[in-house]
Amino acid sequence: MPSFASRDPSAPEFWSERFEQEFTPWDRGDVPEAFRHFVEKSPQPYVTLIPGCGTGYEVACLSEAGWDVTAIDFSPAAVDAARKALERWAERVVQADFFGFAPARPVELIYERAFFCALPRQMRQAVVNRWAELLPPGGLLAGFFFFDDAPKGPPFGIVPAELENLLTPFFERIADEAVADSLPVFAGRERWQVWRRKAH
Ligand SMILES: C[S@@+](CC[C@H](N)C(=O)[O-])C[C@H]1O[C@@H](n2cnc3c(N)ncnc32)[C@H](O)[C@@H]1O
Asked: Residue 117 pLDDT > 80, yes or no?
């Protein structure tokens, strides 16, 4: 186990240290099956934002399918890792803080994986508010949610009722499935969910 100076997962240094020391137990090295399936069966391509993208393998999957995708991460080391991995799609990765990022085009889909559970619990409401601000009525929030009640993280799990309380003022859930190809750190405790932005 490497040793780290930064203990604050809301700071980019926390994540940069872990990318630099190649301690990234959340990194799949590829695209999760439920996400690939979602893209394949989608009725249309969506303008997509990937907050906290890490290595961002999903950028290549979406780009090759002809989708307009922007991936952001506030850690310079994460952005370097993503740009190296993505090669021809590298310019679709932007170093930016999710809370201040203004997309160039209106976003239709936000993809979530290991970003929401990476942040301290007290930041959850702010993340949900920003998701809701970025998506128009009918827009989709799709991805993987980590359910757990252990106090320590990251990853910081959430209990189902809390996720529902946070999201239902803005979103309705339209899909909820078990995940078969989880990494050990998430196994048995993550679900693929799709939430649609309400009109109010
Ligand atoms: C656990 S990693 C997950 C990376 C990626 N989503 C994946 O599935 O492999 C969390 C990522 O979120 C990024 N992150 C955390 N807070 C952020 C913020 N406010 N703005 C942008 N990126 C952020 C971190 O730098 C880190 O790369």
From this structure: yes
What fold is seen in the domain 12-197? Rossmann fold (3.40.50)
Instruction: State how far the Cα of 19 lies from the Cα of 4, in Å rounded to an integer.
Output: 11
pLDDT surpassing 90 at residue 2 = no
- Confidence check: pLDDT of 200 > 90: no
Contact 57, 31 (CB under 8 A): yes
Q: Measured from the CA of 12, which atom of ligand 1 is nearest? A: 25
Distance CA 96, CA 107 (A): 16
Domain ranges across the chain: 12-197
The Å distance, Cα 56 to ligand 1 centre, comes to 10
Q: In terms of pTM, does the model score above 0.70?
A: yes
